[in-house]
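Closing statement on the guanosine-5'-monophosphate sub-project.
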Amino acid sequence: DTPPPPQVYVKSHFNYNPATDNLIPCKEAGLAFSRGDVLHVVNKEDPNWWQARKVVGGATGLIPSQVLEEKRKAFVRRDWDTSEFDRYELQTYEEVARMPPFQRKTLVLIGAQGVGRRSLKNRLIVVNPLRYGTTVPFTSRRPREEEKDGQNYCFVTREEMEKDIKGSRYLEHGEYDGNLYGTKIDSIHEVVAAGRTCILDVNPQALKVLKTAEFMPFVVFIAAPELDTLRAMHKAVVDAGLTTKLLTENDLKKTVDESARIRRAYSHYFDLTIVNDNLDKAFDKLQEAVEQLIIEPQWVPVSWVY
Ligand code: 5GP
């Protein structure tokens, strides 16, 4: 005898309102949902319309099938500059499975330069050093006088680093002023093996590699606040003598623009978005969200489970 087909659950990556959908055969039969909602797909027989049930609340109705929604999105986006989008960006539904509470292997902080990711990361580690850790980047640069190997950086030769980059042992790397810098995959696993969640503040390009069972990330987008708020926050930090690095109006504007660009291109990867308009409040929200993961069941990509 064949086992019953596995239950299909999907997380939606878009908002849907049947009342404004011209394609649905009967608007009253439609099920409205929001981005992030988890839906139990009960029937997939019709290629265009699935029957589904909301996991929270239990409402049922028709939703556009993946094929239908992908066609619709491809049509709308046909004249966009899609250079920074890949196929994943067209994602409509993501198949998910329910897992009992567990500690994520990585906490990935995504955001523009200057939006406070470094501060949030350091604070989490200071507050709970047994729960959180991070990696020490590798570099081919020579150590400066006060620098000790393994503290700010692990210092290696350029040859060794190039060999390991070729051998795919780096999560990401970059070149700056003629020197190589990068995060080694093994150093993430070392933090996880010690029972800690590894906090990473990497470029969003690394998300594709990270979103696997190997790294089980919780991805938090730290969004820039409005320009006026960002300017005021920077002034407060400077006035308090906490930094000597003065940002120009142009730097601040760059942060806001970069933040919007990252949100547009990568929002489907985000598990949570926190607008950093106040560092203390942003920190509290972040800490609370990560603590919740250890208490509540979680919906994760099916590939992490099976
Ligand atoms: P420094 O040599 O002054 O310590 O750092 C120079 C530059 O290297 C900085 O702009 C810093 O952001 C970058 N950098 C440091 N660690 C990494 C890393 O792990 N990966 C990449 N791509 N760049 C890094």
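The mean pLDDT is 93. With this model delivered, the sub-project is considered complete and its resources will be redirected to Aim 3.
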